[in-house]
Amino acid sequence: MISSMTGFGKGIAGKGNLSVDVEIKSINSRYLEISLRLPNSILAKEYEIREIIRQKFTRGKLNVSISIKRNGASADIPVLDSDKLKAYASLLKQVKKQAKLSDKIKLEHFLSIRDIFTVNNTEYSEEEFELVKEALASAMDDLINMKNLEGSELSKDLINRIHTIETCLKSIEQNIQESVKEHFELLRARINQLLNDVEINKDRLDTELALLADKSDITEECVRLNSHIKFFKETLESGSDSGRKLNFLCQEMNREANTISSKTVSTFISHQSVLIKEEIEKIREQIQNIE
CATH code for 7-76+124-147? Predict the structure, then answer.
């Protein structure tokens, strides 16, 4: 089963007066990018948290937010340091007096002074950190479930588009010989028109024309395109690192479709190859969201 790269997951864990909330948002990215928003108390655990996440995901940009509360209040809520506030207020009054300023001391003068606010940076015990890992695991499982559901819908759409390509390719294969014959007759008509008054060896001419007409034969391209389609469907079913593989197969399928279009002289086959390329482009857009 394939998995989408977009989704949202939430996990909650608690014990006693301690509770942990984890939210994870995932969007498309060629590689795995992890952005963490952590309380100050567990900043030292950042590397361990990243490693836990890396074990579950291979691609996508993940925004992970972890909040810890004690007795229902965030552990990172700033607290006013009254002593420092009074000290800064006294200093500002001295500055105003010595500089002979008439301006009033305002609230914004204090809000720009970070020292008057303190945050509880108490580190949590390993037992309490287990709650963080529990909530994180729950959020990751929730995200994976959502990614799998979206991946299932993506897979259905991709299969339908592959079936459309197979139908077009089958029509092309049924017209290959007729296309080569059409090219042969077209070449012979042009040669006869150009050499109308010139005596030529008809057998030799037909041989040379046949060789030229064979250059428009697209049998090999059709065989390779069928092979790519087969591997594409197998990759969809396996779901193992499918995003990169499917992207590569799309490039190869598009290459064969372009060659078919450039070699054929058949209007019908040209039209079918255009339809194939349109479906490949739609598939390519969809697989950018596959992990």
Answer: 3.30.230
Pinpoint the alpha helices (H) of 99-175: 107-111, 126-174
* Two structure tokens written together for 78: 């700033």
In the chain, domain spans: 7-76+124-147, 79-118, 149-287
Asked if 60 and 291 touch (Cβ cutoff 8 Å), the reply is: yes
Q: Which residues contact 251 (CB under 8 A, 6 or more apart)?
A: none
At 49-71, the pLDDT tens digits run: 999 999 999 889 999 999 988 77
Return d(Cα 56, Cα 129) in angstroms, integer.
19
**Residue 101 structure tokens:** 């300023």
For residue 234, give the H/E element and its range.
helix 219-238
152: left (phi over 0), alpha (psi -120 to 50) or beta: alpha
State how far the Cα of 200 lies from the Cα of 207, in Å rounded to an integer.
Answer: 12
pLDDT digits (tens, 9 = 90+) for 245-289: 999 999 999 999 999 988 887 888 889 999 999 999 999 999 998
| Interval 164-187: pLDDT, tens | 999 999 999 888 767 656 666 666
Helix (H) or strand (E) holding 48: helix 46-54
Query: Alpha-carbon distance 53 to 68, whole Å?
Result: 19
Note the pTM of the prediction, 2 decimals.
0.69
Confidence of residue 244 (pLDDT cuts 50, 70, 90): confident
- What are 43's two structure tokens? 């900043």
E-strand ranges in 71-106 read 73-74, 79-80
